[in-house]
Fold these 3 entries.
Entry 1:
Amino acid sequence: MQVWVTVIFTVELVLLVLWSSEVLKLNTLHFDYPKQWAMFAVGTYEILGGDNAEVKITNTYNEQTTDLDLVKVSKNDTNSKLDGAAFQLYKKENGTYQKSGDPITIKNGETDIELIGLKPGEYYLEETKAPVGYMLLGKKIYFKQVDGNISLTDEQVTESVEKPEFWSLSTTNEKNVLTIQNQILYSLPSTGGNGIYWYMIGGMVLMSTAAWILYKNKCREVLGK
């Protein structure tokens, strides 16, 4: 006796399976025992009735996501965390990088994780606002997520061999942390500070000396005539 079994996947894929006492054929797959089709029916299924059994299979695909914590520090002092930096995340879609979500502000708190639920794909981060008193990061940070793991890459999505100068990635206890450094801006003398007065006094002395020399030369020219 042979019974046709219709296996219906929720992904709208319908397979017709020949069930006999000796062999079950599914395209090029072969099964040695009757009813062994249950082994490939991964998921939940139920018999809907009739001699020609209809099996309904529901498969659930759980996409692996992961989180990425962003930490901002000073390049001059990596123990000094910086607040106020903002980044824009981009994800590659159909070969082109597109904005992904709103701009991200780094807070550096222990529980503040900036990127939550990153799906598999290729990404880059671009700094749009630097912390007060620091230079804006001039390069984009490329990385990818594969099977729940994050790795740094270059623009061609080749995993980084050389250590980047201004950022590093670490994973501890399944927590991914991207540490980004900023260079401090060179400070100039403040408007009301003592430094500016010395510059002013020096300039006035030089100007006065030049004026005196010019005056003396003019006087010699007049007396010579």
Entry 2:
Amino acid sequence: MTITIGVDAHKTLHVAHAVDDRGQRLGEWRGPNSVEGWRDLATWATELGHDRQWGIEGTWSYGRGLAQDLVARGETVYDINPRWTAVQRRTARRPGKTDNKSTRRRLWARSNKPTRQRPSKRHHSHLVSRVTV
């Protein structure tokens, strides 16, 4: 069973949701965008299972530190193209918008694309194999 973890990365806070292959929700994590927070998130994810893939929107922005940390730990990390969630974000800009909706969109984006897809400029996500400093 592959566990897909979607992360909504913000300047000071990350929110993560995990689902299994069937789309069943396995849990939610919320914590600081810091080295300690990334360590706590990795520990939480390890408790969910061994075969994991991550979808993070903004691996070159607020999610960069987390992506670097996860790649260094040997995790499979995908950068989720903001275009996938842009329309949904625009329609969600109203009272009551939550990070839960954003992370679910990232989960959907990652889980609805073939994991064996070879990255190219035309694809909407790409495997983050090395995020440089």
Entry 3:
Amino acid sequence: MHSGILNINKKKGISSAKCVSLVRKALNQKKVGHTGTLDLEASGVLPIVVGKATRVSDYMMGKDKTYETLIEFGKKTDTLDAAGEVIDKSDKQITRSDLEEVLKNYEGEITQIPPMYSALKVNGKKLYDLAREGIEIERKERKVTIYDIELLDFNFPYAKLKVTCSKGTYIRTLVDDIGEELETFAYVKDLCRVRVGDFGIEDSIDSDDILDMNKEALILSLNNLDMALDNFPRYDLHKKYFSNAKFIHFVSNMGKNLAFIRKALVLYYCIRDEETPKYVKAVLAGALGYLILPSDMIPDALVGVGWLDDLAVISLAFKVAGKYIKPVHREKAEKRIPFGENDD
């Protein structure tokens, strides 16, 4: 199974789900997903998570995003973009300076009401499905952050903006709100997402090219899933541990916090100490072995014994080791897994 993140440039008119389907077909792999829906009428960066990278999709969804949008003033559509029907018009003229002045009000934290034509769900039903049935319901305001909003071009009735924003920002709503503040109407004529986190459109693969690419080339285009976690602290174990496959399996799969891992390291160093009695080493090795073993290898007699959870095993092992756990064992463990501000 291949794992990683593909930087896909979704073309206008193709759904995010369709992009996922194309990648599944190209890689002949089922475990594929996207990291947040990009509107059908929008184009641009759509990170596709493959294999183990599906585990970090939520972190990708939380990344900051940058959009370039073409606005047309004087018209309002029911979907707030070019796909909808024009439902109102205005003849009011605005100038570049008028727009620049209003844009200042949209920097920083703002509130938005999600549009009815959106993928948000209410009672299990998507808002756009309700909108197509002619049903409009009340939506709660949400806070989002506009980190930067830049006017790239202005030629009334058109303007081009570049917006860097937080998760959950609706550019269609932003444009509609700007139009209202200018006492006119405005809608998104074109929208392109040019960046998600560190994924830029300049390094993307066109969705039209996915099936035409050589499979090996597509695999080589997979980015490391660590890119989704770049805002978290990194901890590196000494390279000598990579020779101990069981220990690495234990650290990478037990899913515990750093304090727990450090305690396991203390036991490990106690076992390696020549002054530790053999019977103590045997008990500690048994404890670590229990933690390392996959669940299907644990003896039936031990399955379902409530007190035999990982924390209990570690605690019992420390009691058995007692005085044989030395300060130097703790110091070595701390060097491998340093204490953090929020570490217990």
